Amino acid sequence: MPLTRAPNLNAASIASLPETARRNFIERLSGADARTLLADWRFWARPEQVPPPGDWRAWLFLGGRGAGKTRAGAEFIAEEVRHARARRIALVAETLADARDVMIKGPSGLIAVAQKRERPKFEPSKRLLTWPNGATALAFSAEDPDALRGPQFDCAWADEFAK
User: Fold this and answer.
1) Which is nearest to 110 in space by CA: 75, 159, 68?
2) Contact 78, 124 (CB under 8 A)
3) Could you tell me which of 100, 73, 87 has the C-alpha nearest to residue 151?
4) pLDDT tens digits for 134-155?
């Protein structure tokens, strides 16, 4: 089994190893394993940043500044698109500028977390994000809640919904 697919293997589990075991683990990594680990969100994520297991309809990630909420939301959407579980997505923010600057183009946003071959194209005038596999996301603002009436979505990400 490749190192990156071992059950319960994550950054925290490696950090908890004694120093010698940590050093041995790192020295055993091949170039391919190291590259895979660097790109594997679930390896680096804290448990609260990963969607809960099971059949659920809403996931609330409540945390303070720097808790990783945006990264968790963007990685969740990216994974849903990658595995074709979501084809039409709603991105809802307080303002359209927030959707663009944080959720889409921000340092932890959808474009930043996408693997190069899966990077979506953003058309700001249409509020539209399109992935190479055909999945799309539309940005919405809490300033115009009626705009969400009509379109149908497989998935939605509401950022800073308490605002």
Assistant:
1) 75
2) no
3) 87
4) 999 999 999 998 998 888 999 9
